[in-house]
Design brief:
Radius of gyration: 31 Å
Order of helices and strands: HHH
Oligomer: single chain
Structural class: mainly alpha
Shape: flat
Number of helices: 3
Low-confidence stretches: none
Largest sheet: none
Number of strands: 0
Helix content: 40-55%
Mean pLDDT: 79
Distance between the termini: 62 Å
Length: 120
C-alpha cells in the first residue's frame, strides 16, 4: 500500500548558488572561576505542612461504580472529540482491565493483613 505524500515535503532538491548572510559569533573572553559558597546561618522548623491528598484504595465492592464512571468519562471524551467513537470500547475495556487487576477482593485483604503481621 503506497504511503500518502506529505504536502510539505519537497519533490526534489536543487542546487543553490548562494546563501543568506551568516552572522559572526563572538569569542569567549574568559571563564569565571569557582567561588566560595556562603555557609548556612540557621535552620528553622516548618510551622505547618499540608497533608498529601488522601487516596482511597480500590475496593472490590465498588467495582460496578468504577466501571460506570469509566463509561461516563469515555463518553465525555468521545463527545469532546478527544477519542474517536470507534476506539471508545477498546479504551474502556483497557481501563476496566487495569482496575480489575488492582482491585482487592475481601479474601485478598485478609491474606494481606495476615502476611503483614507475620512479616513484622
Amino acid at each position: 500500500m503506497p504511503k500518502d505524500k506529505d504536502p510539505k515535503k519537497p519533490e526534489s532538491v536543487r542546487s543553490t548558488t548562494s546563501t543568506g548572510k551568516v552572522r559572526k559569533t563572538n569569542s569567549i573572553t574568559g571563564v569565571k572561576g569557582v567561588e566560595r559558597a556562603s555557609s548556612v546561618k540557621s535552620v528553622s522548623k516548618v510551622s505547618s505542612v499540608n497533608e498529601p491528598a488522601r487516596t482511597s484504595s480500590l475496593d472490590f465492592s465498588k467495582r460496578d461504580k468504577y466501571f460506570s464512571m469509566i463509561s461516563e468519562e469515555a463518553e465525555k471524551l468521545v463527545k469532546e472529540g478527544v477519542i474517536p467513537k470507534s476506539s471508545q470500547e477498546v479504551i474502556e475495556r483497557a481501563v476496566q482491565m487495569a482496575i480489575d487487576a488492582s482491585l482487592l477482593e475481601p479474601s485478598d485483604k485478609a491474606k494481606d493483613k495476615k502476611s503483614s503481621k507475620t512479616d513484622s
